[in-house]
Structure formats: structure tokens, C-alpha cells
Amino acid sequence: PALVIHGEDDAEYTLNEYSVYSHLSGTQSGNITCVTVSGGHTDLLLSEDGKAVESTLGIIADFIAENTGNN
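Request: output the structure for the sequence above.
Response:
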């Protein structure tokens, strides 16, 4: 399984153009799950002040738990 996380405000790879997300469009396709989160291209995991973005880490933790049987 793969998890694709894309920032809603990503100006480098916009949701509607170049990203993997644009081709899968928020659906679950086979073993690929796509989600969008608030933020841009580089602040999905760490905010500008260097702190972890808990909401994104929660998505990742839930995905891992669901796909390893640890839920």
C-alpha cells in the first residue's frame, strides 16, 4: 500500500496539474490512498517554526495502523 499526501496550497505541483494526486483525484485506487492536507509543498510534516504538523502525522499513523493490522 502507498499513501500520497498532497498540500492543498502546493504551488510547485498543483493538485490539478502535475501531481500523482491529480491523476488519482482523492480516490482509493488499488493499494494507493490519496489525501489532501492544508499546507503547501514543504510544510506538510513540519511547520515553518520546525514543529511537527500533528494532523499530518495522525494521517500517517492511521494509514500504517490500518495497513499493518495494528488498529
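The two ends are 16 Å apart (CA to CA).
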